[in-house]
């Protein structure tokens, strides 16, 4: 048995400074490397207890710790990544809820609180960006030590902001106060003023986290079962090694040579651990500054890079567990986690993403937009995906969304929307769908004969027959080539063969235009004569379709005139 380091989830609203806070702790810069400046995948950073003691030495006093350190999980902050936060929150022992001290509790903050409430995860509030409050710019070191030399005017401004956060948290069901005023941490949420920019308050935050873990989580942190369990965070190609998997081991001991059950693109497979590598303390598993250290075993809780022996194709987001005991039950539990709770439709777009968490986030966002999803999978866009998309009956569903994955094939019949930023995909997808719908509407309107009224202008007979060519004015509506025409008595007079103005051929002429048209199979002076009023010769099917069209006032009036003409022979025509 041993006491493992607690897993600390870092949650909060987008841009409130979660990754920047960890950057300050580990002295690196990961935030600037993220696509769009937003953390879109879970990351892990280990902070050894010796480093915590060094940072907090001025305020620790005689406190000692049994825990070996803290393992931070940096989770995406935007609301669409709720599933990733849930995955992070579910394995977190304690959490840091980062709140911009100026903005307070925001929508994604509330969502993060719900995640913590659901998993009954204790948390500490890091009231970030305190350096932007007057009187706190440029301060470093411990917050509580700085209070000794601070006048009351400065602290009052800070306390006003903290009171606002306390009030907002109270409405969410939590009693909260500045950490140095709390006597019972089981009843009150600690608020620690910090600045990720200057490092101010970081010693206080680390001390509180380590102290709470030591005081209240010791039994929870005792690791008696050595069966290794974890979650795959990322899968990547490493030069000279091939496919490697970045993971969090949250239970047991993982050894080189162990065989684990894990999700792959070809189903749940038993893969042998060929090699394991750990980032140096305070380095970040996603993007380390230094070379990884090769290790023979890893104890929970740890971030670790695993080299599996076998076919590869490990799915990011998949849980893994040592292949021991009831293997069928182990396999079923992993399959359930990978499959998730996606609600798929028979008709809908195809979505592909690089990780299970990203896929869940994508499905969540598209669901909010009411966009149906036919297929949701992890991996690159393949020919099969294009085939699945092309078999949709609706053109607006013949789309493949590729989030942060390569597109291996393309097809002119399928639109591919791709980006490594989920909100860019969302906006582009909406634009593409609207564009497809507008084109369909335009094509549909071209197929329907619309209400049109024209007059045969006197003195504008250019050819009597074969074909008859005459000059007309469009009184109402739009006259298109292939429009069938009728007289005021309802008698058909042929179809418009062409429309011209001068030497230019037109596909249509609008209200007010004067153009020359040609009509086959009539002779001017017999079927029609100069001065006649002609109408588009609609059928009843077209009248029903026109009910869904946004007709102009003039078009609606002409439609009523056409109905009246037709009803002289059939009183129920067009009803």
What is the CA-atom radius of gyration, in angstroms? 35 Å
CATH fold field value of the largest domain = Rossmann fold
Main beta-sheet strand count, sense and barrel state:
7 strands, mixed
Low-pLDDT runs of 5+ residues are none
Q: Would you tell me the overall average pLDDT?
A: 85
Pick out its properties.
575 residues, alpha+beta, Rossmann fold, Elongation Factor Tu (Ef-tu), domain 3, 4 domains, seven-stranded mixed beta sheet, six-stranded antiparallel barrel, 31% strand
Structure overview:
It is built from 14 helices and 31 strands. The protein has 575 residues and is an alpha+beta fold. It folds into 4 domains: 2-221, Rossmann fold (3-Layer(aba) Sandwich); 229-338, Translation factors (Elongation Factor Tu (Ef-tu), domain 3, Beta Barrel), CATH 2.40.30.10; 349-445, Translation initiation factor IF- 2, domain 3 (Rossmann fold), CATH 3.40.50.10050; 453-566, Elongation Factor Tu (Ef-tu), domain 3, CATH 2.40.30. The radius of gyration is 35 Å and the shape is elongated. Helix 2 (49-60) crosses helix 7 (202-216), helix 3 (82-91) runs parallel beside helix 4 and helix 3 crosses helix 10. The strands form 7 sheets. Strands 3-4-2-5-6-8-7 form a 7-stranded mixed β-sheet, sandwiched between helices. The protein has a 6-stranded antiparallel beta barrel with strand order 10-11-17-14-13-18.
